[in-house]
Each structure stands twice: as structure tokens, then as C-alpha cells.
Automatic annotation (TrEMBL):
This is DUF2938 domain-containing protein. The chain crosses the membrane at residues 7-25, 59-77, 89-107, 119-140. The lineage of its organism: Bacteria, Pseudomonadati, Bacteroidota, Sphingobacteriia, Sphingobacteriales. Keywords: Membrane, Transmembrane, Transmembrane helix. It comes from Olivibacter domesticus.
Length: 162
């Protein structure tokens, strides 16, 4: 069951990632905005000239993937009785980033008319964006059970001093 313990960290992490992507895209003059790239993929796949449905689909897919990744990260932290903090955010961010790059690469390969994006730069951006996402998820997840309970029981984050 997807509850606020997943939804709130997922929305927080995905929103931080999106803000980062929009700022970088503006600064670099590139379209590294994941929801917009997803919208282009939908628009080109269905050969539509309408913008509203692809745009909504892009955002929905982006946030849905954020929920999925949040659930995976939280399960890893729960199984290891770990309070998520900076170290866990960095590790899961790198793993999530590599996974994300692979998913995007497959998506671009199987799509009949993918958007024209410099993929190596996009991949580097995705890695950093996923680290920001995971840090947001880690720190937001700390506010909910079981991670609050871990702190009350004296379980420390693996990157906090003893």
C-alpha cells in the first residue's frame, strides 16, 4: 500500500530533482527536463499534435517513477535497519542514477523517433539529478516510521559518529 510515508518523500525528492533539472536546463541551454523529454517521447510515439496530454503524461510518469524508486530505497533502508541520511542518499542516488541512465538509454533505443538530446551530457545530468532526488527522499523519509522508531530505539545512521 502506498501511504504518506512513501508519497511525501517521493513528491519531495522528485520535486527537488525537477527544480534541479529546470535550473540546469536553463543554465546550459539544453532540455534536460525529464517531464518534458517524456512528453516529447509520448507525443512522437502517438504522432499527436496536441500538447496537453503528452505534457500531463510526462509529469505523471516522472512522479510515478519517483514513487517506485522511493519504495525501493525505503525497503533497502528498512531491511538494513538504517536511518537514511547523507551517505545512504548518496549511495542510493548513484545506484538510482545508473539505473535511470540505463532505462533512458533503452527508451531512446526502442523509440522509433526519440528526441534529439546529447545523451552523454544528459546521462551525466541524470546521475546528479538522481543523487539530489535520493538525498531529498532520505531526509524526508526520516520523518516517518519506521525510521523515527529507529532513532527512538537508538539505532544510528551508518554515517553518524558513535
Amino acid at each position: 500500500m502506498i501511504t504518506k510515508t512513501v508519497i511525501i518523500p517521493a513528491i519531495s525528492g522528485t520535486t527537488l530533482m525537477s527544480i534541479f533539472s529546470y535550473v540546469v536546463s536553463h543554465a546550459k541551454g539544453e532540455n534536460f527536463k525529464e517531464p518534458k523529454v517524456l512528453a516529447q517521447i509520448v507525443k512522437r510515439a502517438f504522432h499527436t499534435h496536441k500538447d496537453k496530454l503528452p505534457r500531463m503524461s510526462g509529469w505523471a510518469m516522472h512522479y510515478a517513477m519517483g514513487v517506485v524508486m522511493t519504495m525501493v530505497f525505503q525497503q533497502c533502508w528498512k531491511k538494513t535497519n538504517t536511518i537514511p541520511a547523507t551517505k545512504q542518499g548518496l549511495v542510493t542516488g548513484v545506484i538510482g542514477g545508473i539505473t535511470g541512465v540505463m532505462i533512458w538509454k533503452i527508451l531512446f533505443r526502442v523509440h522509433p523517433n526519440p528526441p534529439h538530446i546529447p545523451f552523454m551530457r544528459f546521462a551525466g545530468h541524470l546521475l546528479l539529478a538522481h543523487i539530489i532526488f535520493a538525498l531529498g527522499v532520505a531526509y524526508c523519509s526520516r520523518q516517518f516510521d519506521p525510521f523515527v522508531s529507529y532513532e527512538e530505539e537508538g539505532i544510528k545512521s551508518t554515517n553518524e559518529p558513535s
